[in-house]
Amino acid sequence: MATSKTLGESLREHGVSRRGFLKFCAATATMMALPPTMAPAIAAALEKARRPSVIWLSFQECTGCIESLTRSHSPTVENLILDVVSLDYQHTLQVASGELAEEARLQAMRENHGSYLVIVDGSLPGPGSNMGYSTVAGHSNLDILLETVEGAAAVIAVGTCAAFGGLPRAHPNPTGAVAVQDIITNKPVINVSGCPPIPTVISGVLAQFLTFGKLPELDAYGRPLAFFGQSIHDRCYRRPFYDKGLFAETFDDEGAKAGWCLYRLGCKGPSTYNACATMRWNAGTSWPVESGHPCLGCSEPDFWDAGSFYQALSVPTVDSTQTLGLAAAAGVVIGGAAAALAKHGKTKAVADREPVTVEQLEQKL
Amino acid sequence: MSDSMEFLLWTKGTLFNWALAIFALGMLARLVEIFWLGRAPNYAEARAGQWGPGLRTVFTRSFADPGTFKRSGFDVLVGWVWHLGFIIVLFLFIPHIELIKSVFGMAWPGLPNPVIDAISALTLAGLVAALVHRLTHPVKKHLSDFEDYLTWAVTFLVVLTGYVAYHRLINPYPLALGIHILSVEIFLVVLPFTKLTHMFTAFIARWYNGAIFGRKGVQS
Amino acid sequence: MSALDSIAIAVEVPRLAQEWGNALPILHEIRHGLERLAATGEPTLIDLRAIPFGPGDEARLLERLGRGEVEARIHALGETLIRETAIPAVWLVDFLNAEGERIALHLQIDRIPGLLMTQPEDLAEAPARLDRLLKELAGGGEAA
Lengths: 365, 220, 144
Description:
Chain A is of the alpha/beta class. Chain A contains 18 helices and nine strands.
């Protein structure tokens, strides 16, 4: 349960020294994508921050987001952040099960009414669809979400499914899946998209909320600008090759070996906003483009329905062959009809022509 | 703005299909009509062949004769600049080549992006100059009607939105790209029903001209 | 041994020697930082994790900066390695976690990195701590 202890006290209880705390703040600044000169301000704010209660709801998800977070290099600053929050309900991670587990959630809601954070991963069957597609403890995802969010301070939608509907919402969307922001309109919703999101981005958003106690600045999709403010393309180290017109055309040609731009192999970097190019994956080891694969655009809405992963961004998402054929056939018919009509008119005009004599013309004058 | 990705997918999907269909239908109807109506039969004995002169004229009429150049050098020069720029950008920008490859299965080498960028800027400048000239030249202004301004606008928008999308001047990018694709679709829809058809008919007209002159044994 | 072993695998060596052009601007930024430090005493911090480096860019940058005279280790929340580069006043601060994995990497342009200095709160507590030690010693002395 959340306590009245400040974060500073809590960390010192963990045996963290002042230098350790400063290091923690420096790493947190890095994690929050803030300039490192912000570390003292972060230190001052964190010293006074209170441990919030967190309720984590998992709906139509694959547990990849939680894997991303918990399998990240440990024990790290992320874990410290997780240690200093009070994770009161997460049905994959918690020891309690059944009635006890649900009771833990209800208790956390009662005791921290108005101040707890709700994290959601996964989409949920929206109003009007079959609620039986996804339930927890016999309750529909929708009911649980509405009930839990009612007393929350804010909601963090983790992963593309929670943020935009993701895979479950992909065409033809059999479960009627919707995103959290489609349901929750009366509470702040922060979207941390990605399939999965970069673990440091998840904990960075948590740290930001912890540190400054308020919502970060968000983009048009409700994502924190600190992480989603710039496109992959703009921060890509291969960008100079795009600008020079040097492209890999297959995965094993000279261009691919030389590390040229992957645009023609379907890279969605230009339309994708995420922090992969700087934060990287696996403790900062690498990221998709660095390992030679185009960006799939996993942090954007509708990314499953946005055409082939391996076709360039400029390529249409539909096969126009049939439409083109039908339209061309119709065009030929219409053009033929128009020409026939014109020819008919001409023939008729010739046939109906009445000779005029000079006298008749003179009479008209 | 939060639906910019949906907007992009709409322009790349449903709308693209419709625009392509209207363009194909309209343009084929016009061309079939033109070819089927053909020319009035010429019963006079041919003095020379018509194919050679016809094809030659298709090419030679691209260059203004000295007299025309002297009379309206501005039109010739600016016209050349932006027409050529438009064609180069359309066919030699890598993302466009990818699009053509996906729809028609044909591809060719492209130009580096900075070259395309410079040419687009030049094309935009040419189009603006053409409009200013049209608005300030008394005779031209008098001769211009709504269609002239409409075709200018849809052409200009295609290049302008492309330039804006390339330089990512509108955020988020899916919105910028969607606007560019939308403007191209407007261009495609307007094309068969306005003087923009000249991109096909100009060559047909030249061929007929050259062929007729050739048949008569006259140099065109 | 399985049938898989009969498949010939050609291992291609990646061309890591390639320059991606993202390290040079950092050197310029360091130069500006040095000028600022000399003129106003204002330190500069560069978060190397926020730079979109290409493969090997970071390693090449650090190699070029070289090694200076000072190296220090801080044991708090895992190790922090601090070393002066061959360019005076340019420090590399490598934050590691308890597992020895890097959690942040900074370049600091300063006379001495702030983290090395004794923190004011610790300084304030220092006499009391020594007093306790003295008291213990005094008490222990009596007992002995």
